[in-house]
Amino acid sequence: MWRLVFVVRCTRAARPPRALAPERPPELDELTPREVEVLGLVARGLSNAEIAAQLVVSEHTTKTHVASVLSKLGLRNRVQAVVLAYETGLVKPGA
Question: Helices in 1-95 by DSSP H: which ranges?
Fold first, then answer.
């Protein structure tokens, strides 16, 4: 038992310190944390049904979140939302 504790403690000590959470771009200040999450999923190309399944909410709720994101950010469609997500660094290419 003591060996397991020692191994766990050594493993934890060997990890690099966690980086501080990146600051949220000011363009996204109007959004709730859930809306930022939805925007990130939209930017990754997920459909409303896929977003709903991943967040464990109804598709109707997802549609409401997407509409709210577009409205708050003054965007016309999902394509503009994707562009904004990449430009603000919310989503990184290849990630």
Answer: 2-14, 33-43, 48-55, 59-73, 78-87
Closest CA to 29 of 91, 95, 90: 90
Give the closest residue to 36 by CA, choosing from 46, 27, 49.
Answer: 27
Maximum distance among all alpha carbons in the chain? 60
Share of the chain above pLDDT 90, in %: 68
DSSP symbol at 30: T
Distances (CA, A) of 37 to 1, 6, 91: 41, 38, 10
Is residue 48 within 8 Å of residue 63, measured between CB atoms? yes
This prediction has a pTM of 0.74
- Could you read off the pLDDT of 69-80 as tens digits, one per residue? 999 999 999 999
